[in-house]
Write a structure and sequence with these properties.
four-stranded mixed β-sheet, 6 strands, two-stranded antiparallel sheet, alpha+beta
């Protein structure tokens, strides 16, 4: 959220549709405070980004509020930043209850594929929470050549 220029009337407890309208149109800051150099530095786009915004809104262990949840603005902001910068490849981790159409709607400049992963497949058999990875490729800057779920299986 630090990279978005949000209006003063924005509130984190707004209904989803209001948050979506504000965040999806918010300009992205061109400079941000750099801890390393102790000054404002230009924000540069990266070609690849892997992230996992809070998933409590879609989690079985969370409140199950879905898009109306209290941390939904984090996912909206993340999608806005990827759209603004034209991130070539973005991988976003969440829970299986997070719907593909929700991510695709918020990343209109990207094609999004869903990869469902069992923790047991990666050596974490005692963890009972499956995960989902949304792999988003920018429509004009790159393309994915494989169906990621088929490659995973």
């Amino acid at each position: 959220m630090d990279l978005l220029e949000l209006p003063p009337y924005f509130s984190y407890d707004m209904p989803y549709i209001h948050s979506w309208k504000i965040i999806s149109n918010a300009p992205v800051k061109q400079h941000a405070w750099c801890l390393r150099q102790c000054r404002y530095c230009p924000v540069r786009a990266s070609d690849v980004n892997a992230s996992g915004p809070p998933c409590v809104d879609f989690s079985n262990a969370g409140l199950g509020a879905g898009v109306e949840g209290s941390t939904n603005y984090c996912m909206l902001a993340l999608c806005r930043i990827h759209t603004w910068f034209g991130t070539k490849l973005a991988v976003v981790e969440n829970t299986p209850r997070c719907p593909l159409h929700y991510v695709q709607m918020n990343l209109p400049s990207h094609t999004v594929q869903r990869l469902d992963v069992s923790c047991a497949d990666t050596g974490f058999g005692l963890v009972g929470r499956d995960r989902v990875y949304f792999v988003a490729t920018h429509n004009a800057r790159t393309r994915i050549v494989f169906d990621i779920q088929k490659v995973y299986n």
